[in-house]
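Team,

Forwarding the record for the chain on the shared tracking sheet. I've put the sequence and predicted structure together so nobody has to dig through attachments.
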Amino acid sequence: MNPRASLRSRIGLGIAVAAVLIFTLFPVYWMVSSAFDAKASSGGQSLLPQEFTLDNFAFVLTDGGFATYLRNSAIVALVTVLVSAIVCLLAAVAVARFRFKFRTTILMMILIVQMVPLEALVIPLFLQVKTLGLLNSILGLMVVYIALSLAFGIWMLRGFVAAVPVELEEAAYIDGASWWRMFRSVLLPLVMPGLVATSIFSFITAWNEFIFAMTILGAETDQYTVSIGLKSFFGLYSNDWGSIMAASTIITLPVMIFFVLVQRKLASGMVAGAVKG
């Protein structure tokens, strides 16, 4: 290949990558920059903070009540991840390993549920939560988020469980392992990538979702999550952009931290599956 042509292609590729990075990361930079800018609240934010301040964060966490919203969202997200992960994994093992009546029908229903827009489920789930007497409570919101996570989680984990050779489980039984020992030592490490992926989906859904949270929690401000709390900084005629950007930065951090914590397990689970499978 012509050295000049190769150099031009590398330069073009570098420019394209830089453009994509700028396009992707600039909104994040603008959010963080405005959060630390004292003039952002009055709409005077610029590319670089004109006056560095932490007052926006202090106002959001104290007067804005965001500390309570963070606590509520953390509780809802963690419970949703734990419960949905356990239920999805056990259900995936059932539909992938056992043959029972209406098994195909159940799988088709799970697939159909994923095709339904979430907005179409607002009224049915609202009525069900109302029937259970769980309106205006984070417990009712947890039930909704767990229900929303099950279809995707079961369908994804079913593929991971089905990909594990049955011979591995049979070998564990022959060696004298109990079902629980086989499940913990053989099956669980191999399906860990799928379990982590579904956990990420459940966490992001429970952390960022707005429509169901607003519908279920109603006017109970002490039960609000961060997605609803962010709305309080938008006014009828003007917006407090400094507080909005500070609150958005605070909302973004837990998602990034959660992903950093689980991405190693996602990678190690893939490697374990490649070796043991």
